[in-house]
Amino acid sequence: xxxxxxxxxxxxxxxxxxxxxxxxxxxxxxxxxxxxxxxxxxxxxxxxxxxxxxxxxxxxxxxxxxxxxxxxxxxxxxxxxxxxxxxxxxxxxxxxxxxxxxxxxxxxxxxxxxxxxxxxxxxxxxxxxxxxxxxxxxxxxxxxxxxxxxxxxxxxxxxxxxxxxxxxxxxxxxxxxxxxxxxxxxxxxxxxxxxxxxxxxxxxxxxxxxxxxxxxxxxxxxxxxxxxxxxxxxxxxxxxxxxxxxxxxxxxxxxxxxxxxxxxxxxxxxxxxxxxxxxxxxxxxxxxxxxxxxxxxxxxxxxxxxxxxxxxxxxxxxxxxxxxxxxxxxxxxxxxxxxxxxxxxxxxxxxxxxxxxxxxxxxxxxxxxxxxxxxxxxxxxxxxxxxxxxxxxxxxxxxxxxx
Length: 403
Ligand SMILES: Cc1cc2nc3c(=O)[nH]c(=O)nc-3n(C[C@H](O)[C@H](O)[C@H](O)COP(=O)(O)O)c2cc1C
Hints:
Layout: H1 2-5, H2 10-20, H3 23-30, H4 37-48, E1 66-68, E2 71-73, E3 77-79, H5 85-88, H6 92-103, E4 107-109, H7 117-124, E5 132-136, H8 142-154, E6 159-163, H9 173-177, H10 188-195, H11 198-209, H12 222-225, H13 234-238, H14 245-254, E7 258-262, H15 267-275, E8 280-283, H16 297-308, E9 313-316, H17 323-331, E10 336-339, H18 341-373, H19 391-402
Parallel strand pairs: 3-10, 4-5, 5-6, 6-7, 7-8, 8-9, 9-10
Antiparallel strand pairs: 1-2
The site of flavin mononucleotide has 25 residues, from α3, β10 and α18.
């Protein structure tokens, strides 16, 4: 694990992941869509916020711990659902789940994961102190989704997160340039790419070959699970552009646990979600991977927080790379953040140990930010720690004054 020791922040993990993964896989994880505007916006929004150091506060007994849906979490963070974890590391989702359980934060398993929810529940679930959330992509044939929901319930997942920001597939042109695609399609270009990364071939691909054959989306319904390599449209079948509030009402009926929507970015949608009995919202633009003109999630968070108050739990994702980002999101109304790429980079470098490293880096940075700003508990984190007003608020106030 000497390589991990040299990784001091998420950007170091990213650089190490870039060396280890075939270009096609790395870019699938790292890049976003079209001109990468949303990806940059997400980061800019965090970087724009400056904090004020508060002097002479005894912060010797500070803690980054919190509660999420009434249960303790060691950090205001959970792992985001990412379909590609199983390509970063053999059964990467399991590595992430174990790291999350050890770190006492929830893990969200993607519908598109390559490890079955049964296996995740067995090795990363409540039996080993883990908290599991399941992310749902909605199939065009709704009964397939309903079956999946029942399966997640049988396996003890405490929350269901319905992703609502993906009515169509994104323009990720780089995947085509790289000859990489999901369903897996071993093009000449990607085959050459793999050959240049023998450690990945033996450490990831061969382990699947010698156990189950080609990596599969283990949570897909039977017919689609078989077709992952042949590509008989499993992805298309999963992009339900007909998904609407009637589906949400149905999910609320059949799901007894915590229900969240992921990818809500408007206050009116958030308020509407309340009336459907939704417990929480993930303010997300899919890490900038879907609509390239999407506003930064940090920019839309305050108006959503204002609209729903404390009537639902708000979680933010898209762009978290530093612990200070977590503190900024909390100050603007989030109860926690999700991390997608940050923890995936770690997984790609060292499996469970790499994911643990990413989590501990973010925790350590969040802790230091709290100490500098004089916050002893996460409840003490408010916009009072900001220097000046955020640009967006200032412009809005000026516009109101001029009117
Ligand atoms: C490689 C990759 C795969 C993803 N797969 C899914 C998925 O299957 N379902 C989903 O709702 N979101 C998925 N996402 C989006 C993440 O859940 C999350 O919203 C996003 O990664 C947050 O941005 P960040 O990567 O900057 O932290 C994926 C993201 C990445 C990077």
